[in-house]
Design brief:
The chain starts with 5 loop residues before the first strand and ends with a strand. α4 (72-96) packs across α7 and α8 (160-170) runs parallel beside α10. 45% of the residues lie in helices and 17% in strands. The chain has an eight-stranded mixed beta sheet with strand order 3-4-2-1-5-7-8-6, with helices on both faces. It is α/β, with parallel strands linked by helices. It is globular, with a radius of gyration of 17 Å. It binds glutamic acid. Glutamic acid binds at residues 15-16, 53-57, 79, 137-138, 140, 159-160, 222-223.
Length: 270
């Protein structure tokens, strides 16, 4: 563990599969519930940072495209359009519950340069002091290029699971909650194997656990279990707890905060 963590500070990450329906259209119920639960949790005294995907998917909706464009420049254009829509929806739903939101778009370079990193931490702290919910996404219109070209090299981001672990570390959060399209990490693929067993608590990421993480989830999600496991591992080494749970039940967050067993908990090293 490399620094003091802030006990009441949490990062919550939601993916595109939670924010849209299988049809690809916006899931307003998820937006509403997310805003309600996070606003309520903030009222309970927690400092909440939301990492949200969905820019490309919402851009695609707005442009009435029947699938995500293949061309990088169109994907980046969709992200530019969708990011506005994403923040419009968050602004509207959080306002219903008396909360103000602020947008932070990050590229991997931003956290690699100490001067910028320092300013970023100050911005997050100021927003939280003002009672604002910071909403973070990768700056897709700018940084997606490297990801698409497969030139990530030693770059940090490329998916919002990794980004959310970077944000948790940057903001010294105690806990990261990754809302997924599945209950947590199973010992085999529960979609293929009815007897698959959920891991409730993981203290060490062993080879068996890496093997269990398998491939990607739904065709609307980008990361899948592999990137969630990588995010959990980054956090564990820094003493931050990570929970993977199902985004279909966003109210699970109450049980998570009450310390009840929900999804899969990766215990941060103390
Ligand atoms: N930043 C992308 C978006 O907002 C999603 C990346 C991810 O889901 O990991 O569409």
């Amino acid at each position: 563990m490399n620094k003091e963590l802030i006990d009441n500070r949490i990062v919550v990450k939601v993916g595109t599969s939670t924010l849209t329906h299988d049809s690809g259209e916006v899931n307003y119920q998820s937006f509403d519930k997310l805003a309600r639960v996070l606003s309520d949790v903030a009222n309970m005294g927690y400092e909440v940072i939301l990492v949200s995907s969905g820019a490309i998917a919402l851009g695609r909706c707005k442009l009435h495209l029947d699938k995500t464009p293949d061309q990088l420049r169109l994907k980046q254009a969709a992200a530019a359009i969708g990011q506005c829509e994403l923040m419009h929806l968050y602004d509207k739903f959080f306002a219903e519950y008396g909360k103000t939101v602020g947008q932070i778009l990050l590229a991997s370079e931003d956290v690699e340069r100490p001067d910028i990193k320092n300013n970023l931490v100050n911005t997050f702290n100021s927003l939280l002091e003002l009672g604002v919910v910071p909403i973070v996404n990768e700056n897709d219109s700018v940084s997606y290029a490297e990801i698409e070209a497969g030139n990530c090299g030693n770059k940090l981001f490329g998916d919002n699971d990794t980004l959310s672990a970077v944000v948790a570390n940057l903001c010294s959060a105690r806990l990261l909650v990754l809302f997924s399209d599945i209950e947590g990490l199973f010992d085999s693929d529960p979609r293929a194997n009815e007897g698959a067993r959920l891991y409730h608590e993981i203290k060490d990421i062993t080879e068996d656990i890496c093997r269990a993480a398998g491939g990607v989830g739904s065709d609307r999600s980008k990361g899948g279990m592999v990137t969630k496991l990588a995010a959990a591992k980054m956090n564990m080494d820094r003493g931050i707890d990570t929970i993977i749970t199902n985004g279909q039940r966003l109210e699970n967050l109450y049980d998570v905060l009450a310390g009840k067993p929900v999804g899969t908990l990766f215990v941060g090293k103390r």
